[in-house]
Each structure stands twice: as C-alpha cells, then as structure tokens.
Amino acid sequence: TLSLHDALPISMKLKITLKKSTSGRLEKQQRTVAALGLKKIGSSVIQPDNPAIRGMIFTVQHMVSVEEIAE
Questions:
Q1: Are 14 and 40 in contact (CB under 8 A)?
Q2: Residue range 47-60, pLDDT digits in tens
Q3: What is the pLDDT of residues 7-48, one digit of tens each?
Q4: Cβ atoms within 10 Å of 18's Cβ, excluding its own
C-alpha cells in the first residue's frame, strides 16, 4: 500500500556555490550573486529549483557551480 507521503512529488533544491570573485564584474552580476545569498568565494546556499532561480544562475553561470539535491 502507498501512504500519502509516497504520493507527494519530490521537491528539488539547488546547492549553489560561488567559485569566482565578483570583483571587477558587471554590477548586474554582482547584484545577482548577492540576491542569491552568496557572499564570499566558496560560500554555498540552498535555493528552490524554479525558473526565477535558474535565470539568476544563467546570468552568473561562469562564476558559480550548481548541484541538484532531492529533498
């Protein structure tokens, strides 16, 4: 038998890690990194996987690494 918990879809989250400095980058990129919640090189945040976050990642894809995690 299936329980209610088994029927719920798995929500995906993204672990975003800042790999390169924001110094000398376009202001839009600096603000995007800050809006994602990243401060220092090597810092990581967990964000929900949705189109808005994906768009922000696309803007700074050369500065971050992304991992999908199931939750």
A1: no
A2: 999 999 999 999 99
A3: 556 789 999 999 999 999 999 999 999 999 999 999 999 999
A4: 21
Please state the length of the chain: 71
Dihedral of CA atoms 67, 55, 61, 64 in degrees, nearest 10, equals -50
Count CA atoms within 13 Å of residue 45 on its CB side. 16
Pair of tokens at residue 53: 């976050």
In one-letter notation, the amino acid at residue 56 is M
Q: State pTM to two decimals.
A: 0.84
Cα separation, 64 vs 43, whole angstroms: 10
CA distances from 4 to 13, 42, 60, 69 (A): 21, 38, 39, 22
**Tokens at 63, concatenated:** 């500065």
Q: Give the tokens for residue 54.
A: 């994906």
